[in-house]
Design goal:
Structural class: mainly alpha
Shape: elongated
Number of strands: 0
Number of helices: 3
Strand content: under 5%
Helix content: over 70%
Order of helices and strands: HHH
Length: about 90
Amino acid sequence: MTVAHSMKRYGTRKIMRRVSRSVPWIGGVIAIAALGSAIKRKGVVGGVVHTVLDAIPFVGAAKNIVEAGRGRDFIRDRPVRTVVKA
């Protein structure tokens, strides 16, 4: 194994370790960024609960996998109000 190949493997391991440590934080930031749309769809309490569950690193991933398998959300969207014009 050449020195260049060894250095490349070492650098790859270091970068992958840093990325793997930052993945939970990235998911939390994405969940918080989506808080506004979740509140609009699900109401204040439902939107906050939905976002908190998504922001927790392994709980959010498990919740999303189960929701994809079920085909629907755990916390339902609030009903859409329709305005009837007279």
